[in-house]
Amino acid sequence: MTELAPETRARVAARLRDQRIETASWAYGNSGTRFKVFPQEGVPRDPYEKLADAAVVHRFTGVAPTVALHIPWDLVDDYADLARHATELGVRAGTINANVFQDDDYKLGSVTNPDPGVRRKAIGHLLECVDVMDRTGSRDLKLWFSDGTNYPGQDDVRTRQDRLAAALAETYDRLGTHQRMLLEYKLFEPAFYMTDVPDWGTAYAHCIALGERAQVVIDTGHHAPGTNIEFIVAVLLRAGKLGGFDFNSRFYADDDLMVGAADPFQLFRIMHEIVLADALSGAGAYKGIAFMLDQCHNIEPKIQAVIRSVLNVQEATAKALLVDHDALRAAQDAGDVLGANEVLMDAYNTDVRPLLRSVREDMGLDPDPIGAYRRSGYLEKIRAERVGGTQAGWGA
Ligand code: RM4
Ligand code: MN
């Protein structure tokens, strides 16, 4: 690699220092597939311990100060106390994720259920999540609906859209002026025939109807294979409707593997669109895009996997920041197909690890977060300490 020009290095380093990545509380708990959950030693027993693990990720990476919570998996009596605990650990509660997919009542849907009583219950939960946000100081409410049908004719598509719109409107109206609603879409699963919010277009249409503070969230695992996700990123950015990401990677369906593991090039292409639009940090033209991890570490050590994921996002971002925009635009304007592609590939093929190591040193961090974490003995400590009780998982 040719040496980076000092001004390029300084520009990229400054952006990397300012980048923020939110980790998810459920990544620290036990998880698995519908076939088996393999419990791990040292897994948190409650949201307080999840926050402690998240704080460790932040301690070693320096860029992960917030933690997304999932209600009711992270149910506590006193959210103000939980928020205080987070502050003491050096982190903060981030996005609040609603859960209207695990009660028996939701067999035929939550906010789209044919039964008005079930719809009321689901909306009640969404409103409660806004109460939680008020207490934790969270900015974003993230909504993912498992709603859908398994058989043609099972329910009326347009009526279900009406029910969804009504529920979203009631929840949106409850938000404070500083709070946002992030609407997530997913192609299929658990519904197999029709999903009520299957794609970005549907999410976008609902967000447009709701207003400015309703935004689309892109979970990278929620598309059909081969979908050009960076195109969706670009279109939503242009419309001012990209609220955030749930990062993860997938080989087949919604695999929830570590971001950047399956397809680091796709992650680079996504971050390239973000950098092009000056949307990387709140200071840019686009304020407040949430860069979140939504992953499950079923067989690998969880905290280390979250650290790895943060580093993967940083590496993709660093490469995206190295794209020479002037050269790219010149090649594009000249119709130089291969030249333009080469500009992009040059950046992608740069080894940014030395740059990131020095950025971490500048931040007073160990240049090797994974090595530092392993040497810290934290895993051995929690394995010894967290004995007894019920480990956190998807039910708790
Ligand atoms: C869903 C969706 C949500 C996440 C849950 C755990 O598939 O991606 O964002 O909160 O899973
Ligand atoms: Mn998600």
Explain how this protein is built:
This protein has 396 residues and is α/β, with parallel strands linked by helices. It is 45% helix and 11% strand. It has 14 helices and ten strands. Strand 8 (214-219), helix 7 and strand 9 (242-247) form a beta-alpha-beta unit. It is globular. The model has no long low-confidence stretch (mean pLDDT 96). It binds beta-L-rhamnopyranose and manganese (II) ion.
Helix content: 40-55%
Assembly category: single chain
Number of helices: 14
Radius of gyration: 21 Å
Secondary structure: elements and pairs:
Layout lengths: L5 H13 L4 E2 L22 H15 L4 E6 L7 H11 L2 E7 L17 H21 L3 E4 L4 E2 L7 H18 L5 E5 L9 E2 L4 H11 L3 E6 L9 H10 L3 E6 L16 H13 L13 E4 L8 H20 L3 H9 L3 H12 L4 H10 L6 H8 L1 H8 L11
Parallel strand pairs: 1-2, 2-3, 3-4, 4-6, 6-8, 8-9, 9-10
Antiparallel strand pairs: 5-7
Helix pairs in contact: 1-9, 1-12, 2-3, 2-9, 2-13, 4-5, 7-8, 8-9, 10-11
The chain binds beta-L-rhamnopyranose (RM4) and manganese (II) ion (MN).
Summarize the structure.
By secondary structure, this protein is of the alpha/beta class.
